[in-house]
Specification:
Elements (H helix, E strand, L loop, with lengths): L2 H7 L4 H10 L10 H12 L20 H5 L21 H7 L21 H12 L6
Helix pairs in contact: 1-2, 3-6
This protein binds heme C.
């Protein structure tokens, strides 16, 4: 992709480039960054409970631990992996966020616990990130 290069070389279209690049935080064909996009949302919505030492279901979602505790790891509540790279439907994390964990043989309530529903940006980012192989990016 040479979008930035085009923006820099062709000042006439620079305004358009600025518009496009600022419009959507998670572009459809872009792999969301685990570190820059997903982890900050885990910090905001999840880490108050999923904290070292007292984490429910032994799931620590703090920076430095979250990736290791999610990707390829068996979930406690279901027979699915927490995150199955490349397969959002086989990833229990996504079902806990969308609230359909019971339909895949899971347990408990939707996450974040006690909230009506998870942030849409978080759900979309997690889905796109898993679909693209759940890289440690
Ligand atoms: C207020 C505390 C609290 C918050 C905030 C919270 N959780 Fe949880 N989480 C729990 C509890 C308690 C359980 C076990 C009971 C249940 O699932 O209903 C759990 C279970 C889970 C499980 C199941 C783990 C497994 O291996 O089966 C996942 C996945 C999960 N949480 C992800 C998240 C994510 C992602 C967030 C943030 C969007 C989050 N949680 C926010 C308390 C919380």
């Amino acid at each position: 992709m040479d979008g930035i290069g085009v923006c820099a070389r062709r000042w006439r279209v620079a305004w358009l480039c600025a518009l496009v690049t600022s419009a959507s935080p998670v572009l459809a064909d872009e792999v969301p960054s685990f570190r820059k996009t997903i982890q900050p949302m885990l910090d905001t919505y999840c880490v108050s409970c999923h904290l070292q030492g007292s984490a429910p279901e032994d799931l620590v979602l703090q920076r430095g631990s979250a990736y290791r505790q999610l990707v390829g790891i068996a979930s406690v509540q279901s027979t699915l992996k927490r995150v199955m790279p490349g397969d959002p439907q086989a990833s229990y994390l996504l079902h806990k966020l969308t609230g359909d964990q019971l339909s895949v043989g899971g347990k408990g309530v939707a996450m974040p616990f006690g909230q009506a529903q998870a942030d849409t940006q978080l759900i979309q980012a997690v889905q796109a990130w898993i679909a693209s192989g759940a890289p440690n990016n």
